[in-house]
Amino acid sequence: QVQLVESGGGFVQPGGSLRLSCAAFGFTYDAYVIGWFRQAPGNERERVSCFSSGDESTLYSDSVKGRFTISREKAENKVYLQMNSLKTEETAVYYCIMNVDCYPYEAHWGQGTQVTVSS
User: Fold this and answer.
1) 19 φ, ψ (degrees, to nearest 5)
2) Each residue of 94-110: pLDDT tens digit?
């Protein structure tokens, strides 16, 4: 059974940085997509970024391009999300997902980690 465990969330001031980590366990896929979604209270869940293991390509939402960087440590089955220049509106629970593509349906989800951006 696939298990995704996030860490690295916390409190940061606007303009600050955080790095999220997601450790993946129990998967046997040769090719997969692993990445991050987020959901703020009262909002729809939003795709943030994904990494494709097949061609090692990355995908970013327009709102985070140039500020967030996704990376994978293959040997440790971990994916990271470096978030720079954070904005208050990016306060949300950030979830790690694993799927065949970068969409949330029928995906494996982590438990989420809270990111709060506030002065």
Assistant:
1) -125, 120
2) 999 999 999 999 999 99
